[in-house]
Amino acid sequence: MKKSSKIRIVIFGVLAIMVGFFLAQLSEDLTYAGQYFTESDKELEHSKFYNVYKEAMPAVVNISAEKVVQMDNSMYDMFEEFFGKRFSPERKMQSMGSGFIINKKGYIVTNNHVVSQAEDIVVKLSDGKEMEGKIVGTDPETDIAVIKIEGDENLPIIKLGNSDKIKIGDWVLAIGNPFGLERTLTKGIVSAKGRDIQGITKFANFIQTDAAINRGNSGGPLLNINGEVIGINTAKAGGTAQNIGFAIPINMAKKVVTQLISKGKVDRAYLGIMGQSIDNQTQEALDLDVNYGVIVREVDKGSPADKGNLKVGDIILRVNNKKVENMNTLAREIGLSEPGAKVELTVLRDDKKIKLDITLAKSDSFVSKKQNDLGLELKNHKIGIKVVKILRNSPLRGYLEEGDIILAINRIKVENVEDFNKLIEKYKDSRVLYLTIERDGRRKLIAITR
């Protein structure tokens, strides 16, 4: 045999041994892996939550707002005393929140506390694009705001559902930006409806959910299983509480959003009564057949209630056939109506149910710019105007008390809030104001020095 042939045989032999060794190792590795797990080849089925998220997520935005806030004056004065005017009493703060696009014109719904007093608003879309946001209108009493972005006609939008149709136990999903973690999805159920949680908004009527809602979720949508917005995520319970979040019902928000877009503000309706909720104690004392509703304690002269023949002692049971559970329910139904709207009240009078048609007027219980300088909340009264609230920083605290009736300023008769505003403007440079008031049935003349 030739030498070259022997070399070829040796080479082929070595190659055969190497290939055999490799195949043996591969077989051994497969056998080894198979001892620990089995891989599935079954096609993965996604949950319906994913389909809802996929459809709704593009319309959810991240909102970053820069605000200028005032430092405590006493602290600033202390710094100025020691260091001179090197410190500014103003500080910039950054707030983070969420929102959702409701139409192709770029209108975005969010919470008032996310954007109120903001100087700069940056809206980040789902594709990462950042746009400037402009405030269209805000409503602190419901904690709802509308902002707007410009320049994009192909914006994704989200559909609004009907919050009245949800039931306790229904699945809900929250999409937002908790702690800056963009477009986070959390799920839960409707834990309760109509929660009257004071201190969050004036017209409390919250949906409670155990879907996780954290800082940064504010203003984002709470969705039903169809991917429709049924609430605006707003707050969570503090302290050691877990999985207790609150959302503003979208049906309530629709009324506010419509006004904010159309005129940049919310005009509230006014009935013109002072009332008290009917509880078990009141029911027993008055020997009533009902343990709900509002008993009318006072009717403002010339008010819609007065013109509509509502009387002291009447018990309001329903507004437009909706049950009035208590004073909060009545305030919400009236306050969320527009001035000029007609409402039908079902009233219990002398143990008989009657119906009254009343046309609501524009609310005159408000804090105007001039009143805000004085820190007073006033409302028209049958004679003069009534002090409803005195803010902590009011210069008139110590002179006036809540419940006082202001009858005159510098001997000029005050018949309504408008008169008060005009007289305050007239005497804005006076060093002394003389207020004629009525307190506990007695008239007094109070001298207020500036």
Automatic annotation (TrEMBL):
One Gene Ontology term of the molecular function aspect: serine-type endopeptidase activity
Residues of the PDZ domain: 260-351, 357-417
Location of the active site: H113 (charge relay system), D143 (charge relay system), S218 (charge relay system)
Binding residue positions for substrate: E66, H113, D143, G216, N217, S218, L271, G272, I273, M274, G275
The keyword Membrane is annotated on this UniProt entry: yes
SMART domains membership: PDZ
Record key words, sorted: Hydrolase, Membrane, Protease, Repeat, Serine protease, Signal, Transmembrane, Transmembrane helix
Alphabetized InterPro entries for the sequence: Chloro_Bact_Ser_Proteases, PDZ, PDZ_sf, Pept_S1C_Do, Peptidase_S1_PA, Peptidase_S1C
GO biological process, one term: proteolysis
Membrane-spanning parts: 7-26
Family recorded in the similarity comment: Belongs to the peptidase S1C family.
Name of this protein: DegQ family serine endoprotease
Species of the source: Candidatus Mcinerneyibacterium aminivorans
